Amino acid sequence: MRRNKVVVAVAGITLALGLGACSGGGAGSGNGDASGDGGSGGASGEGGTVGVSMPTQTSERWIADGDAVESGLKDAGYDVTLQFAGDDIPTQSQQIDQMITTGVDLLIVAAIDGTALSGQLQAAADAGIPVISYDRLIRDTENVDFYVTFDNEEVGVQQATALLTGLGVLKADGSKGTEAGPFNIELFAGSLDDNNAHFFWKGAMDTLQPYIDDGTLVVKSGQTTIEQAAILRWAQETAQKRMEDLLTAAYSDGSQLDGVLSPFDGISRGILTALQNAGYGPTIADGMPIVTGQDAEIASVKLINDDVQSSTIFKDTRKLADQAVTSAEAFLAGDEPEANDTETYDNGVKVVPSFLLPVDVVFKDDIQSLLIDSGYYTQDQVESGQA
């Protein structure tokens, strides 16, 4: 995993909340689905029917996940019922209830709230329906059979390392950098009801804490707990408001903010909008703080390419979808899916067997090799900020 330092070049940019649409999954801006619509039936298949429940269509990441899982299952010969829940917990519960009632043979669920589906999963277990938890661990129930995800604690480690690299505290190869600080930073976390947010936070804070302890990094607001830093539903507008409040409360004395730990690109865009409105930037070369991210959303990839956002974490959802399909095929054939982690993911009732996929940090220098050459985006999409 490469950690190349940002190459700074002056470029103008106007941040718009409407640009773009995964924090680690959460909600950015894009196609709305507040009604909970967005379901689709699969083509006729002979292998059975799989119900796929995705949390939202307001993040391009989850749209891509849903489409990729549906496509992979259809190609494997299964019928598919795909539903997006509009970031509404009752809607997701009702959709899963309906899938169980109509007799799906397996469920793949990316939960809005990892603690809110115990009733639905008990009904699935009573009906003999295996459940695969997709990227977000479903908690407080024994009725989760498998978990497919990325190495979420490593995501946090890489986000924190990218912040340190962008500040110059570390070099691209991870060795000690030329800058000693102190640097003023602020911390953002994901939604507390998303289990992944806690893994991201742990990985990041384990990495940053030694630098906070020795004074290299200073959290000037004093807000250093996940409860203080959390952004409900990963909402871009909520992140913008919190950043505005932090600037007013902690930086009205003329102090400069140097960096922000952000766990998701939608949150990052809200942060960057607040910073730009406060007179920072418009680019890193002009004094925009170093801001991290996650999910390689195209609007944020453009900002990285334009030297506004410093980095993001690329989680190749094509690979995650493929793994979900592979695991589903094993269950439906009467076998157990292959797990590469049987110790880490305790949902409060059981340790859920899991398959973890690797992630990559993306700075400007990595866009070509990781995103364009792999076919994830085209050059035109990177330049326009639209998929």
From TrEMBL:
One GO MF term attached to the UniProt entry: carbohydrate binding
Biased composition (Gly residues): 32-50
Start and end residues of each Periplasmic binding protein domain: 50-335
Record GO cellular component, one term: outer membrane-bounded periplasmic space
Signal peptide: 1-21
Main location: other
Location in the cell: Cell envelope
The keyword Methyltransferase belongs to this UniProt entry's keyword annotation: no
Alphabetic keyword roster: Signal
Region entry Disordered, spans: 32-56
UniProt feature coiled coil, ranges: none
Entry keyword annotation includes Signal: yes
InterPro entries per the UniProt record, alphabetical: Bact_Solute-Bind_Prot2, ChvE-like, Peripla_BP_I, SBP_2_dom
Name listed for the protein in its UniProt record: Sugar ABC transporter substrate-binding protein
